[in-house]
């Protein structure tokens, strides 16, 4: 089954990001596509790593850092982790309560 057709804009963005020095996983994350799709795009549209000017490279790196370490993205990751931990703690608490009740009913 064929996947969703990638847009020409994604190909252009992939080439620009690659020329700015982005890694394949970083490009894939930025464009919300898989690493293998990124590889295929760059195979069809070759990019020379580091071919852009220093100003563009600096801008791309700044955007990457902002997207990775931006307050909103950090908050989303923290909220996701906290929600997962709370769910795990609720399950542990439930199992512990069941075990204690089972032990107490066995003693009576």
UniProtKB/TrEMBL annotation:
Pfam family, one: HTH_23
Organism: Pseudomonas syringae pv. spinaceae
Protein's recorded name: Uncharacterized protein
């Amino acid at each position: 089954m064929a996947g969703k057709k990638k847009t020409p804009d994604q190909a252009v963005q992939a080439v620009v990001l690659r020329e700015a020095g982005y890694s394949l996983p970083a490009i894939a994350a930025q464009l919300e596509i898989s690493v293998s799709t990124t590889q295929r795009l760059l195979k069809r549209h070759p990019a020379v790593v580091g071919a852009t000017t220093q100003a563009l490279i600096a801008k791309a790196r700044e955007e990457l850092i902002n997207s990775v370490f931006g307050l909103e993205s950090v908050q989303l990751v923290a909220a996701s982790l906290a929600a997962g931990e709370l769910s795990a703690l609720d399950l542990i608490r439930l199992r512990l309560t069941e075990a204690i009740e089972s032990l107490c009913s066995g003693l009576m």
